[in-house]
Amino acid sequence: MDRGPRVAGRAPGAIEHAVSSHPHAFSRYCMQCGQRLTTAIPENDTRRRLVCLDCGFVHYINPRPVAGTIPVRDDGRILLVRRAISPRMGMWVFPGGYMDVGETAEEAAARETLEEAHLEVVNLQLLGVYTRPEPGVVVIVYEAVARGEGEAGHETSEIGWFHPERIPWDELAFDSTGWALRDWLKRRGLG
Known about the structure:
The chain is mainly beta. The chain has two domains: 7-59, Ubiquitin Ligase Nedd4, Chain: W, CATH 2.20.70.10; 64-187, Nucleoside Triphosphate Pyrophosphohydrolase (Alpha-Beta Complex), CATH 3.90.79. The protein has helices spanning 105-117, 175-187, and strands at 7-10, 37-42, 49-52, 58-59, 64-72, 78-83, 92-93, 96-98, 120-132, 137-147, 156-162. The longest helix has 13 residues, at 105-117. It starts with 6 loop residues before the first strand and ends with a helix.
C-alpha cells in the first residue's frame, strides 16, 4: 500500500532559517491524519520539508501574500500610517495586510486601507510586487486615489499625509515600504 512520498531521510533540527519565522513552521501534527510531523527531504525534492511519516503528506510552508496601497490625494501627498502593533510598532508604512481567502489582491488592499486608515481608495493601479524572504511574504502594492481624509484605525496610532520630499525615510517600517515608495517616486518622475 502506497502511503505517500518516500522520505530520503530524517535529520533533526529546524526548517531552513528563511522559513522559520512563518507561523506554520512550528506545526507539530499532520493536518491530514493528526500524527506527529518531522523534517525530511521528500523523494524527488531537494529541500527539507515538514513531512508526516505516517500518511506521507508533505506540509509546504509557502509565502503569504500581503496587499497594500499608496493612497494619493489631488495635491500629490501620499498617506502613510504609524503602526500601533508589532512588529515595527511606531514606524511608518503604507496601509496593507494579509489577504483573506476569497478576495482579490485589489480587494484586500482596499479593505486593509479602510481598516487601517478609515480611507476609501479607488482606481488601484499595480505599482509593484516585492518579496521579503525572511518573514515569508510577497507584498503586492497599488497606487490608489484617496477618497477623503482618513483617520487612524485599530492597528494604527496616527496617519500622515506626506509630500514626496517629506517622506520619513528613517522611520519606515519595512524594506518593502521603502522599495515601493522609491518605485512610486520613479513612476512620478521624482526618483
